[in-house]
Amino acid sequence: MKTEDWCICVERLIIKGQRRLKGEVTISGAKNAAVAVIPASILLDSQCTIENVPRIKDVDVLKNILEVLGAKVRFEKNNTTMIIEPKGINSYKADFDEIGQLRGSSYLMGALLGRFNRAEVTFPGGCDFGNRPIDQHIKGFEALGAKISIHHGTIKMTASKLIGAPIYLDVVSVGATINIMLAAVKAEGQTVIENAAKEPHVVDVANFLNAMGANVKGAGTDVIKINGVTTLPGGTFHSIIPDQIEAGTFMIAAAATKGDVLVKNIIPKHMESLTAKLQEMNVKIEEFDDSIRVIAKDKLCKVNIKTLPYPGFPTDLQPPVAVLLCKADGTSTITEGIFDKRFQYVDELKRMGANIKVEGRIAVIEGGGKLSGAPIKALDLRGGAAAVVAGLIAVGETEISNVIYIDRGYENFEEKLRNLGASITRVNG
Ligand code: EPU
User: Fold this and answer.
1) Domain spanning 31-239 has what CATH number?
2) Is 9 in the active site?
3) Does domain 3-27+242-428 have CATH number 3.65.10.10?
4) Fewer CB within 10 Å of terminal CB in the chain, N or C?
5) 196-223: per-residue pLDDT in tens?
6) Ligand 1 — pocket residues by CB below 6 A?
7) For 150-193, what is each residue's pLDDT tens digit?
8) pTM higher than the cut 0.90
9) Which of 7, 127, 301, 326 is catalytic?
């Protein structure tokens, strides 16, 4: 572990709870789009400019990886515009430890394979939700003509040439959909991905690739058609979409604290599954062109939620919404429809007095009680966001350790919360 990482590991957030959030917050660029668009730049013949890049740990890690591979990467303008010159990339090997830190590194597989017809990449990491297979990514690469072997945690892929093919995904996978798009953009002929993921960041990556010279059609539906091109000239710019999950986290925090918050720089359509649930809970929502105001004055009603691929309720908002349901009248349930083990954070909430029972993929939440501040840990990124929301509504002081997880995906989280009236500080040691 580098000294800098160790320092972040020992940092904690101290939250004094029970303050209403009030005011305006501006949402940053989407993490899950940025961590795909940055590796996608490997495929380009010349420089690209990426705007609205969130300044989060996962982006810093990917910047370092690209630089090690030979790219020139710099930030400009408010530090959120990233300029990548990929010409100098001369290695198809990305087999180093940093890759295991984040899921987005899996996109190095598709991008390096697409550029060199060859790739050697360390097995990707990411948050621990139980088994996170990559069989659908591999199935796609093989269909395009790659031969694949796995040795000592490194995936090795070679192809004499990549040829477009029909690929039916057995499960709806964001990662596999994006990775296959990356490998297929420069393949010969047409690739058709069926049962593709429809998440906003899948569409954003397709828009980035098309802006750079690719021919990708249908992103946002469950059939994506990619007509291979011989070159991706690049030379232009793309702006990352707003972060649906950061926006949702602030909407939930506003509702949980009985607040009144205008969440700005978002695409309200991306928020529909959450907006509908908040309304069902009795939260008032005002929708504008690129913002949503959340006003929570009245008692919150219980609801049942099931997480599903987009446009269903996002699994990444499941942990923070569980905290909100602790405040609702009556018994609510959450069924996790995407990952096997995404309720580990519940044990931390129980330390604060939450009444939640988990049976496999279902959590039963008895609402109406009060949470009380306690020392708790962020066990993963969104579990960390849930810990913060719990701290905001708890009686007394909450101390959150493992802040490094939260820094992976939320830009200026504390500052944004403080601007809304929260009492949250970062301490060291
Ligand atoms: N799956 C397979 N085989 C595969 C790929 C996936 O069986 O080859 C299964 C997974 O085990 C899971 C389901 O398919 O049950 C969906 O997984 P998906 O591939 O869609 O997830 P991912 O690409 O690994 C991305 C986000 C996650 C988000 C999920 C679901 C990134 C970098 N990560 O992960 O984001 O939860 O999609 O929407 O885009 C987060 O931001 O905190 C986060 C975890």
Assistant:
1) 3.65.10.10
2) no
3) yes
4) C
5) 999 999 999 999 999 999 999 999 999 9
6) 31-32, 35, 103-104, 127, 132-137, 171, 173-176, 197, 315-316, 338-339, 381-382, 409
7) 988 889 999 999 999 999 999 999 999 999 999 999 999 999 99
8) yes
9) 127
